[in-house]
Specification:
12 helices, mainly alpha, two-stranded antiparallel ribbon, globular, Arc Repressor Mutant, subunit A
């Protein structure tokens, strides 16, 4: 999985790609790319499984993404090296990370950058590029610390304030960082549920960071296809005591809990015997 490619796909502006199904296909395709966005070759069948769309729709959206220049055909020899049967070889795609979303600082022509590495001007009068995800998190953290210092408030000196703003020990990942990435992904999660889940992960000694939370958001996007809300998915994960979260886990759990004519059976965990809950 490429965090860079996933972040690029998640931060794609709606003005660039407004088709929700195409965005979902692009996000899942990015999961198979390398760090530079190259060499993704999942089959249409696999992408249909990941997105919940039909294979025909997946193929149509891939063609659309290719027409828009967001993906291009890559080195087809990569797939041939991994897939023995010629009739099973899939297309190899390269994601164009320099297009559509966050541009790399200082690259390309007609661009200038400030000392924080954020591109401030673009060629052809396009909109100003936003911060990269890493700079954005750092700037948000510095802004919060500066505001607390100016007002004479310290999080460690005010237990009540600290309780309202739970913070993970992993790289200072806070509730505000969590909500910022959630908004970028376009997923609706209530503040109370997000706060509870952040605290839940700390109690398990598996604190969240940006990479883990982006992976969980990808799984929550998948469960939406099955009619499961993000709030419900996180609540089920906390109830089950999972240290990770996968779409198939939630679907299987709710299927067993919602049998015809029967209420939930929290004592039945046989369906989870072979699950690896440490994958996230």
């Amino acid at each position: 999985m490429s965090v860079q490619a996933m972040s690029w796909a998640m931060q794609m502006p709606k003005s660039t790609l407004g088709d929700a199904s195409a965005r979902h296909v692009l996000l899942c395709l990015a999961n198979y790319a390398g760090q530079d966005g190259r060499g993704a070759f999942p089959s249409a069948e696999q992408l249909a499984e990941d997105t919940g769309l039909s294979e025909r729709t997946v193929r149509y959206k891939l063609d659309l993404l290719e027409e828009m220049g967001l993906i291009t055909r890559g080195n087809q020899a990569i797939a041939a090296a991994y897939i023995g049967r010629k009739d099973r070889i899939t297309n190899v795609y390269d994601l164009q990370l320099k297009r559509g979303a966050v541009a790399a600082p200082g690259e390309g022509t007609g661009c200038s950058s400030q000392q924080n590495g954020v591109q401030t001007t673009t060629e052809r009068g396009a909109a100003v590029a936003p911060n990269t995800s890493l700079n954005q998190e750092q700037n948000q953290e510095q802004g919060r610390e500066g505001a607390a210092s100016a007002s004479g408030e310290g999080g460690s000196n005010d237990p009540e304030t600290a309780a309202d703003q739970p913070r993970s020990r992993a790289k200072g990942f806070s509730l505000a960082d969590m909500q910022a990435l959630t908004d970028t992904a376009g997923i609706a999660i209530s503040a109370d549920v997000a706060k509870d889940y952040l605290a839940f992960r700390r109690e398990l000694k598996k604190p969240l960071n940006a990479t883990i939370w982006k992976t969980i958001l990808t799984e929550l996007a998948k469960v939406a296809v099955h009619g499961i809300s993000a709030d419900q998915g996180l609540a089920e994960a906390m109830t089950a005591g999972w240290r990770g979260l996968k779409c198939e886990w939630l679907v299987n759990r709710l299927k067993h809990h919602q049998g015809p004519g029967a209420g939930p059976n929290d004592d039945d965990t046989s369906w989870a015997n072979n699950l690896n809950e440490d994958s996230v």
